[in-house]
Design a protein that fits this description.
The structure holds two protein chains of two kinds. Chain A has two helices and eight strands, in the order ββαβαβββββ. By secondary structure, chain A is an alpha+beta fold. In chain A, helix 1 runs parallel beside helix 2. In chain B, 33% of the residues lie in helices and 25% in strands. The chains are: A alpha+beta, B alpha+beta.
Chain lengths: 143, 493
């Protein structure tokens, strides 16, 4: 896994650090973390539904926040667990533009081992940094 | 890779104990503080508070328009923006409104329902009741309610709150009298709510949620009645009486409204409003600005949705008790004691330095606790004070309290729960859901949970001592305990 849970997140929340050799890998890992905080057996997820994600922001960390908010939105609005793949990030005239494919299926408590319900992505400790090995994102989710 | 661990202990050192359960950090402690910060806690609870509380409560003291103090309640712990247990009253003319001072789960709150039943009456039915509640009150990730609402109907729910439910046959008229604000905030405007928020919330009315949300069957043991007159006024008047308590909020609807407006405010703060703060989670707008007013109107929609959510759950509880015990809900005495919010901002009138002032009171993980004689509480409680419901962990029990005159010091506000002392990640490592379920069964608590991982996160040992928190609110003069409630059955999201 390209993420690990934070030990020092606020007590009622869950935080994680996601990383990747590229910004795209890092964003996909952060979306995986968000999904797996809600779904304890992600290997059970069947990729039967597909949604296109497009978000933009002036700041790279807020672009990630919006991407993760889309994962949460589909969970509540359409009852879908989605895994984000094929992430493409462009940085053009000060805007971070993220396009991605999200695939998954309707939440099914008979096959999906449910874990915490993610309410929102907080700004607490939120950052996306370039490191020697690639990119690293720190995110705290309100549970 | 090392994770950041900011050194905030210097702020703790600057706190001085000013009363038996009250500490103060001067406004000189950090540049930008407009008022001192006050933390309600006994020395034992103060020592347990994480350093983040001190950092965050002093950040809150920097908000424009804050009146008197930035406060933290005895159950306080580190959160985002405000600490959980945070309280700040703002001058509505010159001050701000901040979603981080209310929380993502707008109008997360507690509802308590009495019955005419004793423990002996339900002892043999607890499993059937909990199993039926587990089926009829959807809980956990992705849960959807039984109401299939159109967009217009959901907008009506967001406008009318619990009143919409009662008007459509999901409750009794007297339920509204026993709900904060009568179950309806009148300034709600769904046109200030995004379509994404409406889509997230539309199918979630009547769902419990996850995390620390629960529905519990409890007993008031005779030895745990501390104030017989107040208990009697609240309908707790039978030896070993059974009650039902539940904790939930505005679900994805409120979460999305908070997210939307934090992102609306962020780029405007410095550029348009000239506000600079040390934490982006304190994103805010002047209350009188168009953006501040829009958030206030949207936030009130979420308050209403949450009142409606708890009203629908009460309806289901009445159905379940009627079905399992084969007696009418009226005959069973399934009447509301009260419904309290603990994540809101409301316009209220309070006395400040001898003068009555209208204030915008932010409470995030803090409960309104109006004193006897105050006009906004039901007539039945006018002489004893507003009921306050403080939910503990599923293992340790909960409390019913009442507001007191000395609550004036905190704009009539008290604690909301026992407060976490351990992170979710730590709790999941330390406890095991299945084992916990077995341990609870041995102690006479039957539990049904959507998630064993979620159950482990809510272990009693992950929370502060509820008895100590309640005692601290009494010592500080914020509220007085009426009865203690012991769990016998629990549904966990």
């Amino acid at each position: 896994m390209a993420f690990h849970l934070l030990e020092n997140a606020p007590p009622a929340d869950v935080g994680f650090v996601a990383s990747g050799r590229t910004l795209e890998e890092c964003f996909a890992a952060a979306a995986d973390a968000t999904l797996e905080i809600m779904l304890a057996n992600p290997q059970a997820l069947q990729l039967r539904e597909r949604r296109a994600i497009h978000v933009e922001s002036d700041a790279v960390d807020l672009a990630l926040l919006k991407l993760l908010e889309d994962v949460i939105y589909y969970k509540d609005a359409e009852g879908l667990f989605l895994r984000v793949t094929d992430v493409n990030v462009t940085h053009d005239t000060g805007r971070w533009i993220v396009d991605a494919k999200a695939e998954g299926e309707p939440i099914d408590p008979t096959r999906h081992h449910l874990s915490g319900d993610v309410k929102a992505v907080t700004l607490h400790q939120l950052r996306v940094l370039q490191t020697e090995d690639g990119w690293q994102a720190t995110v705290v989710l309100d549970i | 890779m090392a994770e950041p661990k900011p050194d905030r202990s210097a702020l703790r050192q600057q706190a001085t104990q000013v009363a038996e359960a009250l500490w103060e950090i001067p406004s000189s402690a950090k540049p930008g503080m407009r008022v001192p910060a006050r933390i309600y806690a006994t020395p034992e609870l103060f020592a347990q508070m994480d350093d983040g509380v001190f950092d965050q409560v002093t950040n809150v003291a920097m908000l424009p328009g804050i009146v008197n103090y930035a406060f933290c309640m005895p159950d306080g712990h580190w959160g985002y923006g405000f600490p959980i247990g945070g309280l700040a009253a703002m001058d509505p003319e010159h001050g701000v409104i901040s979603p981080g001072g209310i929380g993502f789960d707008i109008n997360c709150g507690m509802r308590l329902v009495r019955t005419n039943l004793t423990y002996d009456d339900v002892r043999d039915h607890v499993h059937d009741l909990v199993d039926a509640l587990y089926k009829r009150v959807p809980a956990g990730v992705g849960a959807r309610g039984f109401l299939k609402l159109s967009d217009d109907e959901f907008r009506a729910v967001a406008t009318r709150g619990a009143r919409w439910c009662v008007e459509h046959g999901y409750g009794w008229p007297q339920d509204l009298e026993r709900t904060e604000e009568g179950g309806t905030m009148r300034g709600a405007d769904p046109d200030r709510v995004s379509s994404r928020a409406l889509e997230r919330g539309r199918q979630q009315v009547g769902t419990l949620g996850s995390g620390n949300h629960y529905l519990e069957i409890q007993v008031v043991h005779t030895k745990d009645v501390f104030d017989r007159q107040a208990a009697d006024a609240m309908g707790i008047n039978i030896p070993n009486q059974v009650v039902v308590m539940f904790h939930c909020g505005s679900r994805g609807f409120g979460h999305q409204i908070a997210s939307d407006y934090i992102q609306t405010f962020l780029p405007l703060m410095a550029k348009k409003f000239g506000i600079t703060l040390p934490d982006r989670d304190l994103a805010c707008a002047p209350f009188k600005s168009a953006e501040g007013q829009a958030y206030f109107a949207a936030m009130q929609c979420a308050i209403n949705m949450s009142f409606a959510n708890r009203q629908m759950i009460l309806h289901r509880i009445r159905e379940v008790f009627t079905d399992v015990l084969r007696r009418d809900a009226h005959d069973l005495g399934l009447e509301m004691v009260y419904d309290v919010c603990h994540n809101t901002a409301k316009l209220e009138e309070h006395e400040v330095h001898g003068r009555r002032r209208r204030l915008l009171v932010h409470r995030k993980g803090a409960t309104r606790a109006f004193a006897p004689g105050m006009p906004d509480i039901p007539a039945a409680f006018r002489d004893i004070g507003q009921p306050v419901i403080i939910g503990g962990s599923m293992e340790t029990g909960s409390y019913l309290l009442r507001g007191v005159p000395s609550g004036k010091q905190s704009f009539f506000t008290t604690a909301h729960g026992s407060g976490r002392s351990m992170s979710r990640t730590q709790a999941k490592k330390q406890f095991h859901g299945k084992q916990l379920e077995r341990d609870l069964a041995q102690r006479g608590i039957y539990i049904r949970s959507v998630s064993y991982a979620g159950l482990a996160e809510e272990a009693g040992a992950a929370y502060k001592d509820i008895d100590a928190v309640v005692a601290a609110t009494a010592k500080a003069g914020l509220s007085q305990p009426v009865v203690r409630l012991t769990p016998i059955g629990n549904v966990k999201g």
